[in-house]
Amino acid sequence: MLVKVFTLLLSFSYVISDGQVRQMVTSYNPGCQTQKCPECSPGVVYVQAKGDNDILHYVVSALGGPPTALVIKTNRPKERYQLNINCKMMASKNDTERKAAITLPSGLKEIYSYGVVFSRLFQYNDTADKADITAYNINSTKWRVYDFTEFEWQDITTWSSNNLIVMKVKTSGEVMDAAFYNESLVLQFHMFDHSDRSKELPHLLYDADSTQFDFTLQDIDTGNYSSARWGLETVLLGSDKKTAGMHIETKKSIDDEYTPGVFEMSNWLTRPGNEANGGYLQWKPVCYLKPGRARSVATKVDYTNLASTSDVNVDTFLQSSIMYSYFPDIMNVSRSATNFTFGLESDGGFTKTNFTSWTAQLGFGAPPEDKVSSLVVGVISAGLGLPVILIMFGGLFVIIKKKTSKEGYTDLDTDRSNIQ
Asked: Model confidence at 401, in pLDDT bands (50, 70, 90)?
C-alpha cells in the first residue's frame, strides 16, 4: 500500500501546471537573401514565439557590438506577425540607418520590451583568495578588462537551431593578448514553447515566457594570474523611461530539492512594482567548475550593487549593441548594470579547473517560484503521519487487549463461583 502511495506522489511531483504553449519560428539574418550573409557577420537570429493572444520576438546577436538579447512582446494580429528587421542596416556605420533597423509594422503593437547586454569581462588575480572583486582597483595590475566589442565571434547561424541560439567566440584579438580563442567563451540561449524544469543543474523552472542562457568560460590562457577569477558586466534594459527604478530581490527557501545546498533565488526586476507586466533576469547563486555539473563542483555566484550605466561607463556599449536599432533613444530608457562574479573563498578559483559555467534566465511577467513538490509533501506527511498512526493504533490495540484480558478474568471468576 505504501509503495503505491509513494509511486502516486512521485508521479504528481513531475506534473507541471498548465501554462501557455507557443509556436516557435526562427529566421537567420533577416533582411538578407541568404542565411550566410557576409555583410551581417557574425549574424542575427530572430525567433518568433507565437502564443494564443501575443507574440514574443527574440533578436539575438553580437553584430557590431557586445552580445545582446532583445525581447519584444506584442499583440498577435490576424495577419502580419514579423518585425521589420534588416541586419544590413544593423551592421551599418550610419546611425540613421541603424536607428531604423528594427521597427514594428502596422498591426503589431508593443506590450513591453526588455533585454540584456553583456558589455565587458573582468579578470582579476585574487591573491588574497577572498573571491571579492571589489577588493581590487580596476586600474591595478591585478586586473584585465576584456571589451566584448573587440571580440570576433563565429557565425551564429552555424550553431543555432529553432529553439537554441549559440554564440561562440573566435578570438579576443591581439589588442587583448588573444586570451580567448577556439570557443573558450560560449553563450547559449534556450527558447521554450511550454512550461517545465531544466534537466541540468540548477534545474531552473521555466515557462513559455522565458528563455534560459548558459554562460561558459573554458580553456582560457590566464597568463601570469595564478589565482584568476572573473566578473561579467551585465546591463538589463526595459522600455520604461529611465526614471523607472530597477531592483534585485533575493528570496530564501527551506527546500533545496532541485539544487542541493542552494536555498536562494535572485530576481533582477525591471518593474519592481508591476512584476506581472515587466521583465526579469533570474538566477540561483551557483555555478559549476566542471562540465559534468554536480554539487561537488559547485561554487558561488555573487553580484555587486546595481549602478547606473553612466556611473560604470557602459553607455557606449549600449549604443554599439543591437539594442540601439530598436531603442534609438537608448539613453532615456530604464537600465541598470551589475557585475556577476564567480567563485567562493578558498575554492581554488578559475585557475583550478579552467572552467566555469553559469545558468540564468530572462523572462516576462512574475518570475517563476520554486514550490515544495508533491513528493516532498508526501514524504513529510508520511514521516509525520506514520508515527501518529502507529501510536493511535498501538494505543487502541493495548486498550482492546487490556479489555479482553479483563473480561477473560471476570468469566473465569464466574465459572469458579458456579463450581463452588
From this structure: low
Count CA within 13 A, CB hemisphere, residue 262. 25
* Spatial separation of the C-alpha atoms in residues 30 and 339, rounded to whole Å: 32
Phi, psi of 73, rounded to the nearest 5 degrees? -100, 125
CA 162 centroid distance within chain? 19
CA distance 15 to 12: 5
SS3 16: coil
Q: Rounded distance, CA 318 to CA 337, Å?
A: 11
Closest CA to 27 of 198, 157, 135: 157
Lookup: cell for 149 = 566589442
Helix 374-419, helix 2-13: angle, nearest 10:
160
| 391: number of Cβ within 10 Å | 10
Q: What is the value of pTM for the model shown? A: 0.86
DSSP letters, 190-213, are EE-SS-EE-SSTT--EE-TTEEEE
φ/ψ region of 291 (left if φ > 0, alpha if ψ in -120 to 50, else beta) reads: alpha
CA atoms of 148 and 189, how far apart (whole Å): 18
Spell out the residues 6+ positions from residue 364 whose beta carbon is closer than 8 angstroms to its own.
56, 71, 73, 112, 114, 209, 210, 278, 279, 280
Measured in residues, the chain has a length of 420
| CA separation for the pair 247, 270 (Å, rounded) | 7
Q: Which of these ranges, 137-146, 191-200, 317-326, 388-397, has the smallest mean pLDDT? A: 388-397
Count CB-CB contacts under 10 A for residue 245. Answer: 14
